[in-house]
Design a protein that fits this description.
DUF4142 domain-containing protein; DUF4142; mainly alpha; signal; Ferritin; 7 helices
Length: about 190
């Protein structure tokens, strides 16, 4: 009966009225090492939030980029979206690996707010290319850079710090490409 009560409590916390879908439940799990000592095998709460937010943004960018070949006229935008998808596929694999090593399963889709933004972006065809560059190319990159920098400065986990440091240059390069694309659109 204790197992049932504990399971019901966990279900209540994750799906019931106490659940907070915008933030991951931060529980410290432990396992026993070979020498019999108890060891923590999970990432800290702020690192979980970072990994969750980064994964959601990346999924958002990938989903938004799926529609560019059908909706965009500009070959420059099509090339940029293909570049973004390829970079994001590599980045999401890295996030999944780091997350799973830390005992955390990252989200596999954009957040509910981002999903509604996707619908808005894809339903409205007026100025689609400019909105894609602003929302996906620029705003999402700025947000990713911000959360990567915050995580790099805040984390006490050396693996997370190395991960953020390794990817910051890539994110900054992506932002520069998006800004150059916006400049090109504004000239044309």
């Amino acid at each position: 009966m204790k197992i049932f009560t504990f399971s019901a409590f966990i279900i209540l916390l994750t799906v019931g009225p106490l659940a907070m879908p915008s933030e991951p439940l931060c529980v410290t799990l432990a396992s026993t090492s070979q020498d019999g000592l108890l060891k923590k095998n999970v990432v800290g709460c702020s690192d979980k939030i970072f990994l969750r937010r980064a994964a959601e943004i990346i999924h958002f960018e990938i989903e938004a980029s799926r529609f560019v070949p059908q909706k965009a006229v500009s070959n420059n935008l099509k090339d940029f979206s293909e570049y973004l998808v390829n970079e994001n596929l590599s980045l999401i694999v890295d996030i999944i690996v780091v997350s799973l090593e830390k005992g955390f399963s990252p989200p596999i889709e954009p957040s509910p707010v981002q999903s509604s933004q996707l619908k808005s972006l894809n339903l409205n065809t007026g100025h689609y290319e400019k909105r894609y560059v602003e929302q996906i190319g620029i705003s999402a990159q700025i947000e990713l850079i911000q959360i990567f920098k915050e995580a790099e400065n805040r984390t006490s986990d050396n693996e997370i710090r190395a991960f953020t440091h390794r990817h910051l240059l890539l994110l900054e390069r992506r932002l520069k490409k998006a800004l150059a694309l916006r400049d090109y659109q504004n000239r044309g």
